[in-house]
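Input sequence (230 aa), recorded before submission:
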Amino acid sequence: MGEVLAGIPKYRYPIGLRGRRDAFLIVLFGVLHLTREEARTITPDDVAVTSIVRIRGHVVPSSDDPASCAACAVTRWLRVVGPVWTGFRGDVIRLLDPTKGNLDRHDCEQPVPGEWRRADQLLLPLDVHGWARTGVALSGRSMTSIIPTRRAAAVEGPIVEVLGAVARRPSRFDALTLQETYAELGATDAAADHVLARITALWQDARALDAALEPSASTSMHGVAPDSDR
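Predicted structure, token format:
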């Protein structure tokens, strides 16, 4: 299951949210070999996170690669399931921010805040927009389809996630003082006013030209002879 876990997106909303939920399910099914009923009824009381991650007494194994580590898959989901359960979408998006993502270190070795204990259930149904249907168990059909779908995606090749801070191209405004920034804004505002004034003048010239040509157009129309068959 390591290759499958490695190929699942872990960041960006909502693709990373669904990826983390699916990775958690894959650990329950493919690593711990729980039944569907056991998986859908997992609650915070069934999970223990210390130096070792346990679910219902089963030790969740770790591996050298953080991307394919089963224990990391569990803790990544625990980091977001609390705000997902409570509907704090902004917190979820922040936690999935790829510019702050890191797959070079083990997530399971980092402290996990306790917000995940607020959730009454851990295996949540998610809609296409990332909203959770709380109080409703993930259907057996969904659970059965997730693993084959993720396996097929892993065969096609993992999604390469670009993580870390994005370098921004330097701008001529970067070194400006506050006073210089206000001056630049004033100059931009004045330039915009000039453009608008020019557009207004062109529009007025077009209307004047149209008015001047209208009598000539009417005279020409009156001088046109009707169609004749002769």
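Checked by second reader. The mean pLDDT is 86.
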